[in-house]
Design a protein that fits this description.
About 35% of the residues lie in helices and about 20% in strands. By secondary structure, it is α+β, with helices and mostly antiparallel strands. The strands form 2 sheets. Strands 3-4-8-6-9-2-1-10 form an 8-stranded antiparallel β-sheet. A two-stranded antiparallel ribbon has the order 5-7.
Length: about 250
């Protein structure tokens, strides 16, 4: 697995890129070789959450400039290798636009973040599993409603309340059956172990592509996520990076 060194004023971070996510791996290697990241900033830092960089517009950006929209003119198809690859502390993941504008959850061409997160109690993860199950059912139900949209609109026009009620019950039953077929969402023993000991951001799992992890220099990530930031989450003192491949 290829390794990358991210050098900053606060120290070096060594990141290992996963072979299981070849599109993201190869893109990151390509940009690193081109010097694309050199001089860019960690422009978005949120304590107990993550540090984000990779915006070319951040090079030499004056204080107060809005950052986070820059990148190459392409996106990368999502590569969710879940639950094998997840958002434990130190995970390297791809930033992206939100679901409404980006339903396929394609990744930014260059922006990335390194997870810090927090350590969770087992009961917190159990509660999260319940929320994941509810979210799964809601997603299935919304998809079914979309498939019956014309029928639903026709019933509404005709004020067919009985028909709408019957269809709703039918879709709810179908939702439950499909959800049972998919299985109840649950964290694996590996995830549970990591999230209750090392920490991370489990609520981002299966939402953003994880394509690497910090091999050394986690203390540097900790320093960065602890830095003072402005209202836009940009560090008050610029933290620039140089990114190079390690042979």
């Amino acid at each position: 697995m290829p390794k990358i060194k991210i050098s900053t004023t606060l120290g070096d971070i060594i990141v290992r890129l996963y072979d299981e996510t070849p599109l993201h791996r190869d893109n990151f290697l390509k940009l690193a070789k081109e010097g694309y990241f050199d001089g860019t900033l960690f422009h978005r830092v949120i304590k107990d959450f993550m540090i984000q960089g990779g915006d070319p517009d951040s090079k030499g950006a004056p204080a107060g400039k809005m950052l986070g929209q820059g990148g190459p003119d392409y996106t990368i198809p999502a590569e969710f290798v879940y639950p094998q690859l997840f958002h434990k502390r130190g995970a390297l993941s791809a930033a992206r636009l939100g679901d409404e504008m980006n339903p396929e959850r394609e990744s930014s061409g260059s922006q990335f973040y390194i997870v810090w997160g927090k350590v969770y109690k087992p009961q917190e993860l159990k509660q999260m599993e319940k929320q994941m199950a509810m979210q799964q059912e809601q997603t299935i139900f919304n998809q079914l409603v979309g498939e019956h949209r014309k029928e639903i609109m026709e019933m509404r026009r005709n004020r067919d309340r009985a028909g709408l009620q019957a269809l709703q019950e039918e879709l709810e039953a179908e939702t439950h059956a499909k959800s049972m077929e998919m299985g109840k969402p649950a964290f694996t023993p590996e995830q549970t172990e990591a999230y209750t000991t090392v920490g991370g951001t489990p609520f981002l799992d299966n939402q953003y592509t994880v394509f690497g992890e910090v091999e050394s220099g986690l203390e540097v990530v900790e320093k960065i996520q602890n830095c003072q930031t402005d209202r836009g989450d940009r560090p008050k003192e610029d933290i620039a990076m140089q990114v190079a491949l390690i042979d």
